[in-house]
Amino acid sequence: MSCFPLANALAELPPIFQWYWFVVTFVTGASVGSFLNVVALRQLADEEFVQTPSHCPKCGYTLKWFDNIPILSWLILGGKCRSCKASIHWQYPLVEAVTALLFLATGWHFGIDWIVLPVVAFLATMVLLSITDFKEHVIFTWHALWIIPVGLLVHALGIGNDLIALAWVPAWTMETATYFGPSFWSALMGVAGIFGIFEGLIFLSRLLIGQDGFGHGDTLILMAIASFLGWEGAVASLVLGGVLTGVVSLPIMFVQWIKEKAWGLVWKLGTALLATTGLYGLSYLELTPKKHMVISLAVMVGTAILLFSFLKEKQQVGGFTKVPFGPGLIAAAMVLLFFGQSILNPAYKLFGGLFGSI
Question: Of 24, 120, 263, 324, which residue has the fewest beta carbons closer than 10 angstroms?
Answer without folding.
Answer: 263
